[in-house]
Specification:
Metallo-beta-lactamase, Chain A, 6-stranded mixed beta sheet, about 25% strand, Hydroxyacylglutathione_Hdrlase, alpha/beta, single chain, globular, about 35% helix, binds zinc ion, binds fe (iii) ion
Amino acid sequence: MNALEYVPVPAFEDNYIWLVSDGRNAVAVDPGEAAPVRAYLAKRGWRLSAILLTHHHRDHVGGVADLLKDQPVPVYGPAGEAIEHLTYRLAHGDHVSLAEPALELAVLDVPGHTSGHIAYFQASDPRGTPHVFCGDTLFACGCGRLFEGTPAQMLASLDSLAALPGATEVHCAHEYTLSNIRFALACEPGNTELQAWRDEAAARRARNVPTLPTTIAHERAVNPFLRAGEPSIQATLADQLHETVTDRLSAFALMREWKNRFR
Ligand code: ZN
Ligand code: FE
């Protein structure tokens, strides 16, 4: 079987629209705008064969109508959200089986950023590597804001992503890594893997190279939102915020709120 290519196409300020291609056909994940997708497809000579959506925000669905004008393709998205043009409405436990490119995806419910947010997990590509497309739920060194969900929902969603195989490549929808790392270091200044990642990520951005994909194993080691149970993080939160941290849920909720106002 031919290898698949996973390409982050930049859009807007800091979005990535992921394309997965077998060299002829491509699937687009969260095309918030059509123009960069059209341009990239044209450059590579790829044909769009399907669209996958994780949640209803404009910067993830805004390009769907225009892409459908070019060619009618099936559109997969969350059953729990009001999104136009959906061909298939998906929820936890559903499977997406595509022929071109050949892709088998399992649907995970990951509410928190939005109430119906889903992620797509590919257990194995032709080389044996797992992949997940997680929209605005899990970011490199961070997580999405809680626009529609509770901290408990988001923590459960992040737990389900963190439980995926460590080698899983994580395809997030935004390049937020450098600012996320600054916050992560405030939460866990002594994390040496995080310090090394700060230097590596800064070097990549200086060359205008994406910091993604990341992996689940790496996120478990450096992402403070997956590490809310760490005693050192809980101690830092109690100290910095003058709050009582009783468990990982309270630590997670305090951390998420702190991040909202962190500069
Ligand atoms: Zn969003
Ligand atoms: Fe977004």
